[in-house]
Amino acid sequence: MIESLINLFAELHAIVFEGIVLPGLTAAGLLAHMEEAFDFTEWFLIGAIEVALLAAILLPLERRFPAERRGPGGLGDRVGTDFAYTLLHRLGAFAVFAFVLLEPIALAARDGWRGWGLPAVEIDALLGLTYLPVIAAFVYLVILDFVDYWIHRFQHGWNWWWSLHAIHHSQRRMTLWTDNRNHLVDDLLRDAILAFVALFIGVMPSQFLSFVVITRVWQSLQHANIGLAFPGWLARLVVSPGFHRLHHAVGLGHEGPARGVNFAVLFPIWDWLFRTADWSAERRFSANERLPETGIRDQAQGVNYGHGFWQQQWIGLRNLCQSFMRASKSEN
Ligand SMILES: [Zn+2]
Ligand SMILES: [Zn+2]
């Protein structure tokens, strides 16, 4: 079954590349970049299939079991904007691009590391998993998810980074498309850090692609407006829509001693270990209780995080500069 799906995808990839991309490259005199274009076509198609499947499965679930029914919302809450972000980020395969672009730098850093006499960092070889790629891929998934947890902690904990990440939290009508509402600099930073760490510890391109697809799909699910309680054991194992909804809740998701709760991307064990977990969502869903509203507290006082893509990008940059200026003033 899986093999025939892979073959079907390879056929589609070949048809699209030979029928559309190759003639385009020839006409533009860019045949020297054929190899890169072939890879990009693959990532683009994976992104397109992913978006289509997510829509087919999650849109009916959002309609049938909504976590909240809210009015049309403000201009900054338009779902269409989030859909545009999704197409840009997923079809543009930002994370995989970062992996390819950073390869020479990360490999040079790894050589330097070895040159200083430090121990090898290729995790699969260290654990004797070189010939067990599926198990190695799972170990890498856990390690990269741990890195993702800490990236997310710093997105909330460092003021300058929060000024960008706030764009993600400013959506008050969460849907499956909300995951990709991010400042582009924020995306770039996260994707670059994850790609660099992955390359440094020996993740293969195919393993990284699996990590990217799994996290992207799961992040869309956890942002979806679905009010279904996961069974207790499952909610402890993987991040559920309720668990992440509390991360977006006003008063919970970006306030308190850790500047938020439920930071994990795939595995909530990190929140449990570092004492940032709020497990109450499944209980509240089961009791038909509403979860707190989502968004940022100061939006109620009229603070604007942008109406539409360009304004959100501009406001994120402006807030970033202001946060740096405040930091340098307080140092003087
Ligand atoms: Zn966050
Ligand atoms: Zn989120």
Topology record:
Elements: H1 2-28, H2 34-64, H3 79-91, H4 94-115, H5 123-126, H6 133-157, H7 159-169, H8 184-200, H9 205-223, H10 232-237, H11 241-247, H12 269-273, H13 280-286, H14 309-331
Helix pairs in contact: 1-2, 2-3, 2-9, 4-8, 4-9, 6-7, 6-8, 6-9, 7-14, 11-13
The protein binds zinc ion (2 copies).
Residues 152, 155-156, 165, 169, 247 line the site of one zinc ion.
Protein described:
- With 332 residues, the protein is mostly helical.
- It folds into two domains: 1-64, no CATH class; 72-331, no CATH class.
- Helix content is 65%, strand content 0%.
- The termini are far apart.
- The mean pLDDT is 91.
- It binds zinc ion (2 copies).
- The site of one zinc ion (ZN) has 4 residues, from loops.
Q: What are the defining features of this structure?
A:
14 helices; 2 domains; single chain; globular; 332 residues
Helix content: 55-70%
Strand content: under 5%
SSE run: HHHHHHHHHHHHHH
How would you classify the helix and strand content by structural class? mainly alpha
How many beta-strand elements? 0
Unreliable segments (pLDDT under 50, ≥5 consecutive)?
none
- What small ligands are held by the chains? zinc ion
- How does the major sheet shape up? none
**Total of DSSP H or I helical runs spanning 4+ residues:** 14
Looking at the structure, what is the overall shape? Answer: globular
